Amino acid sequence: MPASITAAYLARYRSAAADATTDLLPLTGAQRRFLITRRLAAAGRPDVVPLFFAYPRGTLDLDRLGRAAAATAARHPALCGGFATVRGTPVLRVGGPSAAAGAVPVAPGGTARSALREALLDWPADGPALRLLVAREPDGEEEVLAVAVDHAACDEQSLGILTADLTEAYARDEAPATAPDRAALDGYREAVERQLAAEDAAAGAAAQAHWGRRLGGLSGAGGGAAPTTGMLSHRLPAAEGAARSAVFPALLDATAAAAHRLHGPVGPLALGYPWGGRPPGAAPVLGCFLNTLVHPADPGAAALDDLADAWWDDLDHADTPFDELVRAARTAGAPWTGALDGMLTLEDLHRRPPLVLGGVPGRETHLAGRPLAAPLAVAASHGDDLLVRLAWDRERFPEATARAAFEDLLATLRRHLHAA
Fold first, then answer.
1. DSSP H helices in 87-143
2. Residue 333 — left, alpha, or beta (φ > 0 → left; ψ -120 to 50 → alpha)?
């Protein structure tokens, strides 16, 4: 079997780092995928992870927000310097804090949310890794804060670290360091190298055989980015007891039902979902460690126990990098290009502390209309209730079909959680 993609990357990275005059840090498979996708995109924009919080008007001090952003970035090498390509090899070039804060003007007749959405669309490819943007409602009593992070520097699992650090930095309001210290650099390097070792170990023959069996039937409906999107949302009661462990496999089947309503009568669809975590013993550094796994979404109702068993088998190979999944599927005969037909994310809100600024906890809100990396995206937030959101490509699917897909999703989810 040929060398893994991870092993080949590490060989190139070590050669580039040995000849470099500045510190270069390696990247995980997830980080490299985001950077490659960015280069292939027509506009070259980075994929951004945003959080939105509403505060009473007059709560936020922009200068203090700027200092908090820089101080937070200085604590994390992933938010310092910038991503670069050295001799064809993606790396993180170490430097000073890559952060900014500022106000976003609201056009006459516009809203704070629409202004923030447009500002994020204009995020430059070489812009800061962390941006705090504030827009005030012209005739309202609220101001809305966008906390936006380059996805190559932060995954959903790291958002709790970010909100905690921003809360602390805003309260302390001290001048930020000009660069991460040596301990932070060493901790980040060790965590990434542990992750790369796990990815290399998970790319062997057994993993290739597993993913070939699971993904060899994929054809896909022709996925792709969605520039103009709509969003529907609904709140369900929080899952309790045994039903908590059934939430994710139930969401997988519910998303599959919605995807097949949108894409029509096609074969198994490629549904991507982030999964994983930091390797054992790795420091809790900010960075991108969640891998993107792929679920082959078959049409028709599935028994939750059977679906969960197959999903648990997939999690035994959760460290296999996405590019190795594509290689396994194509080796098994799938004509799949690697484009995703849909995405699913689940966030446990109990793991993320609130963003408290000026003594006021922000009220989290959500924005419709943001670009998506796939024509369909389902996001669920599990806290005091289960908030489910479906976003879709408006240029590809009519709203009536999207609403029918959302009803299919909710019906499937209720059926599985009730049975659980």
1. 112-121
2. left
SS3 243: helix
Place of tokens 């879709």: 392
Q: What is the Cα–Cα distance from 413 to 407, expressed in whole angstroms?
A: 10
Q: Are 380 and 388 in contact (CB under 8 A)?
A: yes
∠ CA 88-90-95, rounded to 5°: 120
Q: How far apart (Å, rounded) are the C-alpha atoms in residues 50 and 147?
A: 6
pLDDT digits (tens, 9 = 90+) for 368-411: 888 888 999 999 999 899 999 999 999 999 999 999 999 999 99
Distance in Å from the first CA to the final CA of the chain: 42
What is the number of H-type helices and E-type strands within the chain? 11, 16
**Using CA atoms, how far apart are residues 135 and 217, in angstroms rounded to an integer?**
47
pLDDT tens sequence across 227-260: 889 999 999 999 988 888 899 999 999 999 999 9
31-39 contacts, C-beta under 8 A, 24 or more apart: 31/83, 31/90, 31/92, 31/152, 31/153, 31/287, 31/288, 32/90, 33/292, 33/321, 33/322, 33/323, 34/151, 34/152, 34/288, 35/83, 35/85, 35/90, 35/152, 36/90, 37/373, 38/125, 38/152
Q: Which residues contact 231 (CB under 8 A, 6 or more apart)?
A: 366, 368, 369, 389, 390, 391, 392
Rounded-to-integer distance, Cα 178 and Cα 277, Å: 29
Task: Say what the alpha-carbon torsion angle 11, 12, 14, 20 is, to the nearest 10 degrees.
Answer: 170
| Of the candidates 403, 306, 353, 388, the residue with the CA atom closest to the CA atom of residue 147 | 353
Q: Say if residues 176 and 80 touch (Cβ distance below 8 Å).
A: no
Structure tokens at 176: 């930020």
- Give the pTM: 0.92
